[in-house]
């Protein structure tokens, strides 16, 4: 009689441990996934802030009167970004990386209703890897103002995207891999 009672307890313990083990495993996978994503997001945020300021300050540093951003400058910003990510992320894959550079001014010397892109080409300089789509948005017109010199301030924006590992999403059937950050700066 005593042995059958002990074997039932062992069976109950095994079932309870299996249920708790599944939830504990999901918690570990979720925590690991969040930690990786936060690490990548922090690196992307710092880098996007640095790159937008490099693009913004080029006019001050090099004495240019032209505030538009040409393909060479955008390509240089992209090259700096990729080189930095390769140094800081050991598993960086360029095919999972997206980069968008925008620069805008406001019509009528900063007082009009129209926002014009000053990036040569299609309005945004975009470089996307084969495994990600990265998009930016136009700023609100109130963020672009008239400077004390009577011209429109230039609004610079850098958007970085990266497809991170999708551990938790692959378990529950969702896609939580895309990390996107955006930094903006107002130039002279």
Structural description of this entry:
47% of the residues lie in helices and 19% in strands. It is elongated, with a radius of gyration of 25 Å. The model has no long low-confidence stretch (mean pLDDT 82). Helix 1 (2-62) packs antiparallel against helix 2. The chain has 188 residues and is of the alpha+beta class.
Structural class: alpha+beta
Strand tally is 5
Strand content: 15-25%
* Principal-axis shape: elongated
Distance between the termini: 88 Å
* SSE run: HHEHEEEHE
* Fraction in helix: 40-55%
Count of alpha/pi helices = 4
| Overall average residue pLDDT | 82
Low-confidence stretches: none
Rg from Cα: 25 Å
Q: What summary fits the major beta sheet?
A: 5 strands, antiparallel
How would you concisely characterize the structure shown here?
The protein has 188 residues and is of the alpha+beta class. 47% of the residues lie in helices and 19% in strands.
């Amino acid at each position: 009689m005593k042995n059958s009672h002990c074997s039932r307890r062992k069976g109950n313990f095994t079932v309870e441990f299996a249920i708790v083990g599944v939830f504990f495993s999901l918690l570990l996978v979720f925590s690991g996934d969040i930690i990786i994503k936060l690490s990548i997001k922090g690196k992307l945020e710092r880098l996007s802030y640095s790159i937008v300021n490099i693009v913004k300050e080029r006019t001050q540093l090099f004495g240019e009167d032209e505030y538009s951003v040409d393909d060479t400058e955008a390509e240089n910003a992209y090259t700096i970004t990729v080189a930095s990510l390769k140094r800081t992320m050991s598993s960086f894959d360029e095919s999972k990386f997206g980069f968008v550079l925008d620069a805008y001014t406001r019509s009528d010397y900063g007082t009009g209703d129209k926002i014009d892109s000053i990036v040569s080409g299609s309005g945004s300089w975009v470089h996307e890897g084969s495994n990600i789509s990265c998009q930016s948005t136009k700023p609100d017109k109130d963020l672009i103002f008239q400077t004390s010199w009577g011209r429109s301030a230039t609004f610079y924006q850098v958007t970085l995207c990266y497809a991170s590992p999708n551990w938790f999403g692959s378990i529950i059937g969702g896609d939580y891999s895309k990390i996107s950050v955006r930094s903006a700066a107002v130039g002279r």
